[in-house]
Design a protein that fits this description.
Blueprint (H helix, E strand, L loop, with lengths): L8 E4 L14 E5 L2 H6 L1 H11 L3 E5 L8 H14 L3 E6 L1 H15 L21 E6 L11 E5 L6 E5 L7 E4 L9 H20 L5 H23 L4 H19 L5 H12 L4 H16 L3 H13 L7 H18 L13 H17 L12 H13 L6
Parallel strand pairs: 1-8, 2-3, 2-4, 4-5, 5-8
Antiparallel strand pairs: 6-7
Bound molecules: nicotinamide-adenine-dinucleotide and fe (ii) ion (FE2).
The site of fe (ii) ion has 7 residues, from helix 5 and helix 9.
Amino acid sequence: MSWEYDIPKIVFGEDAIEELNRLKGNSAFLVTDGVINKLGLVEKVVQILSDNQWNIAVWDCAEQDPRVSSVREAAEGMRNFCADIIVALGGGSVMDTAKAAWALYAQPDMDLTALNPFEELGVREKAKLICIPTTSGTGSEVTKAVVIREDESGRKFATINPELVPDLAILDPYFVKDLPKNLTAWTGMDALTHAVEAYTSSWKNAFSDACTMKAVKMVFEWLPKSVADTSDMDARGKMQVAACLAGMAFSNSQVALAHSLGHSLGSVLRLHHGMSVGMALPYTIEYCCTDEDTAKYYAELAAIIGIVGKKPETVARKFAEAIRVLMEKIDSPTSLKAAKVTKKKFKEGLNKLVEYAMMDAAITMSPRNTDSNIIKRIYMAMFDGEPIDF
Ligand SMILES: NC(=O)c1ccc[n+]([C@@H]2O[C@H](COP(=O)([O-])OP(=O)(O)OC[C@H]3O[C@@H](n4cnc5c(N)ncnc54)[C@H](O)[C@@H]3O)[C@@H](O)[C@H]2O)c1
Ligand SMILES: [Fe+2]
């Protein structure tokens, strides 16, 4: 059986943004959000494009965890402007808005909630997509994934389509220089979760493994430094690369249980994606490590950060603990209580949390089977911060 590994061209490092000078075309549609626009990051991109005589439209209405209706608005803008390149400047929410809108630009009548890996979109007949991440975590700049929210229910759903791998990813540390401490920490945890879940997925392959192993090493080394000193541009650049490697890995291997739990936390409690999946990660490691093969994979990752031992399951549990220690170091909550979710809110949301986690596509990739009751027990452990022993 053959396999494919899809990634875009990646330009990284100081002044990587100058790569925009090499683009060819007439009309550039820039997708961003209000925060990025206020930070002045848009100016730098607009300057380079206007120096190269591009017609430019700036759409700065991307939502955090974008809804279908907002993606439709972006696609409408692309169509009216006859964009021949789309530039996404922002975090995962902006990039996913741009990617999903790109699909609707090519297929205006498509039901976005039905987007699947097999649909032929023809996006490149309309435009090329350039992604410039302003957070270091989602890896969306290199993935075939999009995560969107349904308007009525608010449920986040993730899907993939190989055509949605962007054409160019520009990783320039300038664009993450103002990322606050909390978002630096949470998005970094998203990267680690992508790496770990990609490594234990049944779709894992030598290419995704290589990216994962380097990403895990880099996150443990550089994330605490990025958070401790947000002006450390070397650490910032390293985290951009780590997040991108983890993105390549999971896009070509898949994420699993921590992401199903995390997507649901985003939908029901509106917690940040990286904070949610990062918090879920150690609990899911403890749950899945009773599976022998999976425990071996966790132990291989643990060895990268110097945790070794005879019994893979024991090493896996130590790895989960090391992830909690990392989160404490960077002040990322290790329990829902610590994330300031009240008992009342948690109890009110619990059934929906379980329902949405069970509906999430990533749950099918869990290395150990689950059911509604198990998911409920994991959420309850996550609320109190109790390690999983079942
Ligand atoms: N498509 C994929 O492959 C993929 C992978 C993982 C996550 N996601 C999705 O991405 C979204 C999360 O993305 P995210 O974690 O990048 O956060 P985000 O894009 O939702 O942004 C969070 C907040 O940070 C602000 N922000 C972004 N960059 C900033 C900067 N440099 N300085 C200051 N503020 C900045 C944004 O304006 C926003 O208010 C979720 O919806 C998640 O489900 C997608
Ligand atoms: Fe993620």
